[in-house]
Write a structure and sequence with these properties.
about 850 residues, alpha+beta, eight-stranded parallel β-barrel, six-stranded antiparallel beta sheet, 15 helices
Amino acid sequence: MAKGFGYRKLLVLLSTLLLLLSSVVALSDVLTQYKGGWADKVLYMIMIDRFNDGDPSNNNQANVEYDPRDGAKYSGGDLKGITDKITYIRGMGIDGIWITPPVANQWWDPWVNYGGYHGYWARDFKKVDEHFGTLADYKALADALHNNGMKLIQDIVVNHVGNYFRFRNGKFELNTGSIPTSAPTQYPFNLNNYNDPAQKEKAIYHWTPDITNYSDPNQKLNYQMSGLDDLNTENPEVVEALIDAYSYWIKEVGVDGFRVDTAMYVPKEFFDKFFKGEKGIFSLRKDFIAFGETWLSGKPLEYTSDMEIASYFDHGFNSMLDFTLMEEIRRVIKGGQPTEFLAYRMKVRNEILKKGLLVTFIDNHDMERFGKGVTPNITMQALGFLLTLPGMPVIYYGTEQYFEETRASMFKGGWGSFGEDHFNTNSDMYRFIREAIEFRKAHPATRYGEVNILLSEVRGAGLLVYTLKSSEEELFIIMNTANDARISNFKTSYEPGTTLEPIYNATGGISSPIVVKEEGYITVRIPARTFTVFAISKDKSEVYKPTTKVSVNIKPSEKVTALKEILGETDARTVYVYFDRKAESEQKIEPKNGKFSFIIDPFKLDPGEHVLLVRAVGKNVRDTVYTEEIKFIVELEKKLLAEAKDPADDDIGPNGTYIYPTDATFKRQMDILEAKVESIGSTLVISVKPRDLTKSWGPPNGFDHVTYQIFIDDPNRKGTGVLPMQNYAFDNWDWDWEIFATGWLSAIYTAQGSAKDKFGVQLGSPEVFVEDGWVKIIVKGDWIGNPSSFSGWTVYVTSWDYDGIESKFRPLQQEPKAYIMGGGNPTDPLIMDDVWLELE
């Protein structure tokens, strides 16, 4: 890791962590308290309704809530269906399943036109939902799992029930159209009528409106999340009822653990009683696992969210979902952002894992699937990384069958299945997961090893080199997240002659041993998108010491602001120059009289730190030497290329008829007032100023209820006029790159491979943030060919909104609904507002 600002912050962080976690014995291993137990497990997460239909007779309960053609309704999956597929699940090497809540739910909510197929809208916490089967079915599932040596994790909710009441303009309303009931059926949760003085006095609920500001601690803990009736978990009667309800499943069914939904919306003191009280959950089972959901977004090179997640270990939880690692994996491996971000997060985890178990994942039921928009090898790289890192990994159902739709069905009768079953045990991804899990179980360092970072990239995709060391073994890992080969020469603490033997390649990689050279240097050339694990051989290799000499006249951390000639001296026959560890950047130079030179052109580079490496080949290949990696800084002025003002109130679609959804969180976020494009060298900074900038849902990028689909055209390239997913195509204009930016995620795609209903090839994830009321998007020059000029280029900015749970653009119909746009037809252009910019 570069010893810059990020490194200094990490040193401060580790000192802080050591103080906060000082009660833990300092050992080289992490997760020592879970050895031979939960740290050795790999889980498989299942959404019951979308996995398998074992009993079609329970599908349609009310003639309104079931329709496998509609993703908002029940599809037919049930508990018996899971039991029928245990052999399929176990075949991947999976040790247990985590299922979405099986409890009786609100089936249909007319206020939001959505169903409770997912299980998180409780009607009765002590009853199996009729769509999922019976108590006997649940017991049969538990027995089948246990007979196969597998565990059962039940998802539970203590924060809320379904959406049975609301406060609208200060007035209380009951959801009388709710199906099957207008209130929970279990006491005391059925006491939900605020207008009844006796029920109001009972205070089973907080009697609050929806959260409008997720940054307000009071709203976060006491208001309704997305309309779901918030339980008063400070009320002893509520605490007792919830303990009783969830103890029931341990006693009756034999569940082995809980995943606690929306834990961050419940006061932490509740969990002290719920888990550790005299009659709490842990009094029933000593080996019980409980991991909480605290979806906190961690900014790169910051640890605030990690510390907040770790704080739940002091309130009953013995494990927590690792959201910050998930986000970093998506940023770095999928998004092409600096591997330094992931390196930082891995170091932070070293100390946290000595206090409790972190449950790791790359996606789940509440977000866009990792595999959407990327080639399978990128997903394999992410899974290879996940399955060789300490923590308890979770594989989301369908990952092994290349699913891209978040909540698609595995069985042919369910929504999103395209009429086919998806239980292919010969799928490449299924076999890949099985082999990765086998490797994990054979190597203790992947489960308990402490991470030590040896090399990472500060400016983008590329190399991440680290070791995992446990009391049993040490492993050496090299990952290349870039779409091109990388070359590096870096120093380690290994003795010369140490031999690193490749023992696992997740996605291609190195098949030959690496021998450590003089002074501990390791030289590698790593293929694109690879992940390789090495063992440290007991045998030493002979080290040849070349006599070739080479030097260059650039100083470490030297600033480059204009074209700069670099002079060098060598006795080599040939010299090769590389920038930023890119093998394809190779420049071949034939020295004359022991002298050579080359040019650094900063206008073809992004601003910031860059790496220079020189390879000198002597009389033969064996006499090859490398310089140390030399870091230099590119500094360039920002240049305005275009700006445009856009009229207010024109966020009404191409025909002037579009209407925002009716939910109160929608304002005028899609109304574009201004836009501008600036350049810093070959990097573009695209800025958009919306009329209303809101953060109702706590988006990490600083804005919600608007997405920007931004199209960039280089006139010298041939692209396409079709705008993916937006029901529109140009006849006389084409684009070459598309930027998709939301408050939660971002991507840049090429036109290549795009279609009406499909994004192109993803190149990375641009940095997106809010500054002074502007949404700013950083487009790295690497992604767009590092042009020396943007003259004649065009940028077209459009706005719409995106449903992150369903992973699709918000639908359009004539009548607006809570989360559905109005004033148009489903096939009309999904463009609320737009603006053009011609670059100079």
